Amino acid sequence: MSSAYWQTERQRELYGNGKNITERVSDYVKTWEGRCYYDGIPDEVPSKVAASNRAPSWKAIALCVLRNDHNLLGLGFQRSENETSKLLMKKQKKLDTLPLFDYLR
Questions:
Q1: Cβ distance 40 to 30 under 8 Å?
Q2: Which of 75, 42, 39 is nearest to 60 (CA)?
Q3: To 5 degrees, how large is the angle CA 26–CA 48–CA 15?
Q4: Where are the domains of the chain?
Q5: Rounded distance, CA 52 to CA 57, Å?
Q6: Is residue 46 a contact partner of residue 60, using CB atoms and an 8 Å limit?
Q7: How many helices and strands in the chain, by DSSP H and E?
Q8: What is d(CA 6, CA 64) in angstroms, rounded to the nearest whole number?
Q9: Which of 73, 68, 97, 95 is nearest to 84 (CA)?
Q10: Which pLDDT tens digit goes with each residue over 7-42?
């Protein structure tokens, strides 16, 4: 194995549908700039507005990054069909393993 192997493998980590977090943030900014924030999105918005996701802010982006929310679900991005099906399969498997009449013992 060559020494360059480790350097190339670390840089290929992708998130979600082949987009990395930088591309998702730029999509988020472009979307909001297209709606009505022509001068750019603000650094911070009031807490009630931020909680309802009615206005963008760089603070919301920073919080998603700090929470390791690489798919930016906290900003309103949706899960891909593949991720959703995996979650549903996990949930179904967990339900299948639960005892049905556990209280009778």
A1: no
A2: 75
A3: 30
A4: 14-99
A5: 12
A6: no
A7: 5, 0
A8: 28
A9: 73
A10: 554 444 444 455 678 888 888 899 889 988 888 899
* pLDDT 10s digits, 61-76: 999 889 988 778 888 7
76-81: average pLDDT: 72
3-state secondary structure of 82: helix
**Cα(33)–Cα(27) distance, rounded to whole angstroms?**
10
Identify which of 22, 15, 33 has the alpha carbon closest to the alpha carbon of residue 71.
Answer: 15
CA nearest to 28, candidates 79, 72, 69: 72
Q: Are 72 and 80 in contact (CB under 8 A)?
A: no
Maximum CA pair distance of the chain?
A: 66
The encoded tokens of residue 97 equal 């393993």
The residue length of the chain stands at 105
Contact 28, 56 (CB under 8 A): yes
Residue 72 per-residue DSSP state:
-
Token couple for 83: 């991720």
